[in-house]
Amino acid sequence: MRAAVSIEQVTKRFGSVQALDGVSLQIGEGEFFGLLGPNGAGKTTLISCLAGLARPDSGQVSVMGFDVQNDYREARRQLGVVPQELVFDPFFTVRETLRIQSGYFGIRRNDDWIDEILENLDLTAKADTNMRRLSGGMKRRVLVAQALVHKPSVIVLDEPTAGVDVELRQGLWQFVQRLNDEGHTVILTTHYLEEAEALCGRIAMLKQGRVVALDSTRNLLDRFSVHKLGLRVEAADKLPEAITRRGSLSEGYLNFMLGSMNEVEPLLTAVRESGCPIRDMRLSTTDLEDVFIEVMNGQDVEREAR
Ligand SMILES: Nc1ncnc2c1ncn2[C@@H]1O[C@H](COP(=O)(O)OP(=O)(O)OP(=O)(O)O)[C@@H](O)[C@H]1O
Ligand SMILES: [Mg+2]
Predict the structure, then answer these.
(1) Which ligand ends up closest to the CA of 190?
(2) Which CATH number characterizes residue 267's domain?
(3) 291 lies in a domain?
(4) Same structural domain for residues 21 and 156?
(5) 160-219: per-residue pLDDT in tens?
(6) pTM (2 decimals)?
(7) E strand segments, the chain
(8) Which of 157, 188, 285, 294 has the smallest CB count inside 10 Å?
(9) 43 lines ligand 1 (CB under 6 A)
(10) Is residue 275 part of a domain?
C-alpha cells in the first residue's frame, strides 16, 4: 500500500515542552486512521506539522509523496484539514466562505461540489447566512465543508465532533465514511473513543509526544480482551477477602476483570455461598476506553499491522 502520509522521526519543542518526541507513522492510502491521546499529547502539533503550519525541529513529513517543507504547495493541495479551533471570517456567508476557499486552490465554478457538501452537512438552509450568525456547531460544520472543497486525497479531522449534536455527528460520519469508501484517506483525532472504535481501522496513541500504541483497532481490543463483571451485592462488607481482593469497588459495584466467561459461574457461586445476595449484575467486554486507560497507564503496545 502506498503511503498517503509519512512521518519520520519528527520532533518539535515549544520552550521547555517536548511536544513531539521522535514520532514515526506511515499511514496507507485509503486508511481510516485514528490519532488518539490525552490533552497535550501532541496530536494537534503533529497535524500542524502535516499541514505545514508548524516546522518540525527535525524529521520528515510528506503527504502523498510530497515533502511538506520542500514541496509545500503540492503537499498542501493533497490535504484537507478541519482545525480544532473555530477560525472563520465573520464578514462572509457560508457559500462565500467556501467559494473563497476554492479560490485558494485555484478552483473556479465549484458550486456543484459545494452544493453537495452543504447538503451532506445539512447546511443548505444556511448557505446565505453570515458566518458570525451561526451557532458553534454550525460553524464547525462549515470548517468541515471548507476542508473538503478541493476534494483532498487526505482528510484530517482534529476533534470534528466537539460541540456537535448527535444528529450531525451521525450525518458527518456517514459522509466521511463515504469519502473513505471512495478512496480518500482519513485521519481522525477525537476524545470520543467509541467513535474511533467504530470508524478507525488502525489507531496510534500518543502520550507526551511519543507513540505508545500503534496497531489495528481489532488487535488493540483483542490484546486487552477481558470480560468485566460488575456485581452490586447486599452487605458487601461481609464478603470474604478472597473475593473482594480480586475486584475493585466503584460506584457501588464490585468489578472483576475476567480472562474468560468460564470464570463467571464460580465467582457467582462463591458470592452466593458467602450469604450476600446479588442485587444487580452487569457484564461487558473490553472497549477502546479500557485499552486507552491501560496504555496511558504505561503499557506500550507498538506493532505494525494493517
Ligand atoms: N504554539 C505553542 N506554543 C507553546 N506550546 C505549545 C504550542 N502548541 C502546543 N503547545 C504545547 O505542546 C503540547 C502539545 O499540544 P497539542 O495541542 O499538540 O496537544 P493535543 O494532543 O492536540 O491536545 P488536545 O487533546 O488538548 O487538543 C502541549 O503541552 C501544549 O501546551
Ligand atoms: Mg489538539
Answers:
(1) 1
(2) 3.30.70
(3) no
(4) yes
(5) 888 788 888 888 899 899 999 999 999 999 999 999 999 999 999 999 999 999 999 999
(6) 0.85
(7) 3-14, 17-28, 32-36, 58-63, 66-67, 79-82, 154-158, 185-189, 202-207, 210-216, 227-233, 248-250, 253-258, 278-285, 301-302
(8) 285
(9) yes
(10) yes
